[in-house]
Amino acid sequence: MPVGFRILPRTRAVAPALVERFRKLPVANVSDSMSRIFAAGPRLRPMHAGAVMAGPAFTVRCRPGDNLMVHKAIDMAEAGDVIVVDAGGDLTNAIIGELMLAQMVRRKLGGIVINGAIRDSGALAKQDFPVYAAGITHRGPYKDGPGEINVAIGFEGLVIEPGDMILGDEDGFVSIPYADAETVCVATEAKHAAEGKQMAEIEAGTIDRSWVDATLRKLGCEGV
């Protein structure tokens, strides 16, 4: 099977019950629970109307400006899957547009992330179907290949493997490694609950802010 032009089966995926637990959590809290060092960069932004994206990764690597393997991934992916596409970060040609989005909606996929560009942005912006991309262009794609499906991909310092947990909201998206998903979910649930308590204390005017001056004194700040 030639490297660079192949379709592999996905052998694992985060469980649906775990996906639903993550769906209730903010991406920022997940990021904090992963030591704030796992991110896909600020270029990949939500292009849709705001629905949360949550599901197992279905990965695609394609030649910049070519979406043949993305079409195949749409046909292969299961309901709830999030297609994650490494298109090299190139913004010259769009990887998806309104017609492909309609096909993903019909197949009940969980969303799409593209390290590349989209088009028909006005139509996509009106839809709840989650779309994250690095940019917009009117120029359409080619359909010649090559490309790979269900391989490890990476962009902006983030490595994503098939079946990893993908979560996205207004702040962007994050990938949680399959083996760490349960641990990260538990930690994030605890953090989210703690922040809920803090918010209640802020609203009641009872929150303890003494840590600010204590930190400044510890760091040797004058005038505290």
From TrEMBL:
InterPro entries listed in its UniProt record: RraA/RraA-like (IPR005493), RraA/RraA-like_sf (IPR036704)
Cofactor: a divalent metal cation
A Pfam family: RraA-like
Organism superkingdom: Bacteria
Full protein name: Putative 4-hydroxy-4-methyl-2-oxoglutarate aldolase
